[in-house]
């Protein structure tokens, strides 16, 4: 649980607004938690079957590359910060 979980609420608010913030945050957090739990299991099973982590690491590298492309293609914020009232 690094900085990405601290930045998640900020990005959700900026790209999707706050109307369904709880649903979006909960869904993304749940998916990340499930993936975090499945990762070690998949790595272990891959090692048991192939005696190498190579195939699992290659698949995870592809997943990371896809995630980087998705984040890089987000574009400008949909909901910008409001300027303070004067």
Describe this structure in words.
With 86 residues, the protein is an all-alpha fold. The protein is 73% helix and 0% strand. It contains three helices and no strands. It has helices at residues 3-16, 21-50, 54-72. The radius of gyration is 17 Å and the shape is elongated. The termini are far apart. The model has no long low-confidence stretch (mean pLDDT 88).
Mind sketching the topology for me?
Blueprint: H1 3-16, H2 21-50, H3 54-72
Helix pairs in contact: 1-2
Q: Oligomeric form of this entry?
A: single chain
Task: List the total number of helices.
Answer: 3
The total count of strands amounts to: 0
- Mean pLDDT value: 88
The coarse overall form would be: elongated
Uncertain segments are none
Structural class: mainly alpha
Strand content: under 5%
At a glance:
This protein is an all-alpha fold and 86 residues long. It has helices spanning 3-16, 21-50, 54-72.
Keywords:
mainly alpha; 73% helix; 86 residues; elongated; single chain
